[in-house]
Design goal:
heterodimer, A: mainly alpha, 13 helices, 3% strand, B: alpha/beta, Rossmann fold, Alpha-Beta Plaits, six-stranded mixed sheet, four-stranded antiparallel sheet, 37% helix, elongated, disordered N terminus
């Protein structure tokens, strides 16, 4: 396992663009902290975002997991291009000739996915912890430790997304087209949702079917956190909109995303196994 | 047949077949490779050489038939750690240096990193070890590929068209390295469409045409038979008559100024000269000749087409 990890780590470390993208990614993750600096001070209106409760424990786990996940496209570019390059440089072929099995090749890529997802989760944890300790109104340990499932959801969401990217990189073999396909797929899910709402028969709940789509399922893991903010709720109450929807992490969403991760892993292996190089 | 014979089998190929759609690229090949010999795979472009190597190297899936490395004691990818192979173009990570690329290979093959400098020195690249692969010339890339293939001190070295596209100096360098390795007793499997390349270094040859195996065996058995004699004499008619009376001579033909005589058993040149002199023939030319691999190859492939 260490061998497989080091093989992929060597490939990644020597690649300048990957290093830059990964660096930029972690800088952007840290930049969540800059939200704390958002202040308006226009005469009578004084507004300091950090004091609106977004950095309160345990809400901060939800808020930062949601915002942090936006940046994952940076790592997606790294994973897709590292995979597609294995084809264009024919180094996959050379790796196999040198004595790596196709399974080992896939596992070395997946170990990198786990490592990136784990480091990213750890990063979000540390950034949130520090911000929370500075700005949170409550710093009791029992409250800090609440709602940790958002971090679990964050981790699983990244694993699945990167697994999807690895599959697309392998299937399409060209990084630009693979990333383009990712966008097309996102639209495809949207169109399917529209069609389901419009045409699905009585016995079929469009929401439940849509829940099974991979990107949507990943999105469902961490719902938007804004409607939980008291400021937003107050506003909603004033205009009489009911925002009482469930924004917690759902067990079935985790299962759906894990199943998709496994499907991406298996499909990638099938492609590797069947294809002649 | 003892334990030794069994251990000496490096690769056994049985009925190996690959079809691409309706085209049969490799058609029921069967051969085995034993330790210590130098094998050539010979055939024109598109005869299935690279596909055959691709299959035994785990990058092309066979349609039917199979192969086993080291008498089946290792599965393919484990076995490949004991193999060194260079197929077609050298494939490395362009953004890595020579040393970084070899370190990656050493991780895959699980060999100590201490080998890296040793092998780079062998192919004359030690001075360039910290330069990126993409800055290398084709000749240097090919030499790095050789260093990489030798990193694990392989039990068999597989080369596919190793001199393709190189300039004459590059060709000479690569050939010298191959000869050095062959002299150390390493088993070699060399695919080439260059006949003289195969003739110079190989002891055994597999001849392919359109994916079919048309010869497998020793190069000497293919090239020499019993050779033939090229003669001329003051009296050509008498020479022909005298030759046809010698029982060892099977067949006579006229080729320009010379008479060609083909023996069907080993025939000593001195013996032939003496018996012709006894018949009163005065020879003006006598030479023993062997067919080149090229002639034999053309004969073989023509027979197949007929």
């Amino acid at each position: 396992m260490k061998r497989l990890f080091l093989i992929e780590f060597d490939k990644l470390r020597a690649n300048r663009s990957s290093r830059i993208l990964i660096g930029a990614y972690f800088i952007l993750l840290t930049s969540i902290a800059l939200i704390a600096a958002i202040k308006f001070d226009i005469g009578p209106i004084k507004f300091h975002l950090a004091e609106q409760g977004i950095f309160n424990f345990p809400y901060i786990w939800h808020f930062n997991a949601f915002i942090g996940a936006w940046f994952k496209i940076f790592l997606a570019v790294v994973i897709v291009s590292m995979t597609a390059n294995e084809y264009s440089n024919k180094t996959l072929k050379q790796n196999l000739i040198d004595g790596l099995s196709k399974r080992e090749f896939l596992h070395s890529k997946w170990l990198m996915i786990f490592a990136l997802a784990a480091i990213s989760t750890l990063f979000i944890f540390v950034v949130s912890l520090i911000l929370g300790l500075i700005y949170s109104n409550y710093t009791e340990v029992s409250i800090i430790l609440k709602d940790f499932e958002y971090l679990l959801a964050y981790f699983i969401k990244h694993i699945a997304f990167f697994g999807f990217c690895l599959f697309l990189g392998t299937a399409i073999k060209r990084s630009a087209f693979a990333l383009g396909f990712l966008g097309v797929w996102q639209m495809f899910e949207g169109i399917c949702y529209g069609l389901l709402k419009w045409k699905s028969p009585e016995w079929l709940d469009p929401e439940q079917v849509f829940r099974l789509f991979p990107l949507n399922a990943m999105g469902n893991l961490i719902h938007e956190p804004f409607s939980r903010l008291s400021a937003v709720r107050n506003l909603a109450n004033q205009v009489e909109i009911d925002l009482l929807k469930n924004t917690s992490v759902q067990f079935w969403d985790i299962i759906i995303v894990l199943v998709w991760s496994f499907i991406f892993y298996s499909l990638t292996y099938r492609l590797l196994k069947r294809r002649d190089l | 047949m003892g334990v030794n014979t069994i251990m000496n089998n490096i690769l056994t190929v049985t009925q190996l077949t690959k079809k691409f759609g309706h085209i049969t690229a490799v058609d029921t090949l069967s051969f085995s490779i034993k330790k210590g010999n130098v094998y050539g795979i010979l055939g024109p472009n598109g005869s299935g050489k690279s596909t055959t190597l691709g299959m035994i190297l785990n990058v092309v899936n066979p349609t039917s038939g199979g192969f086993s490395w080291f008498d089946g004691t290792h599965n393919t990818h484990q076995a490949l750690k004991r193999v060194g192979a260079i197929i077609e173009r050298p494939n490395f990570y362009p953004y890595m240096t020579a040393a970084q690329n070899l370190r990656l290979v050493s991780r895959i093959k699980e060999v100590p990193k201490s080998k890296i400098d040793e092998k780079l020195a062998l192919v004359d690249l030690l001075a360039r070890k910290n330069d990126k692969f993409k800055t290398f010339s084709l000749g240097m890339k090919q030499r790095l590929a050789i260093a990489s293939a030798l990193l694990n001190d392989p039990e068999i070295l597989i080369l596919d068209e190793p001199t393709n596209g190189l300039d004459p100096q590059g060709i000479a360098k690569v050939r010298n390295i191959i000869k050095k390795i062959a002299a150390q007793g390493t088993t070699i499997l060399l695919a080439s469409h260059l006949l003289d390349e195969v003739e110079k270094v190989c002891s055994h040859v597999l001849v392919l045409q359109k994916g079919k195996q048309i010869y497998f065996g020793k190069v000497t058995a293919l090239t020499t038979d019993h050779g033939y004699f090229e003669l001329n004499a003051t009296n050509v008619d008498a020479l022909q008559k005298a030759l046809s009376s010698i029982t060892a001579i099977e067949h006579i033909e006229v080729d320009g100024d010379y008479i060609l005589a083909y023996p069907n058993t080993p025939l000593d040149i001195a013996e032939l000269s003496k018996s012709l002199a006894d018949n009163g023939i005065v020879l003006t030319h006598l030479a023993q000749k062997y067919k080149s691999l090229e002639d034999q190859f053309l004969t073989l492939t023509q027979n197949q087409q007929a």
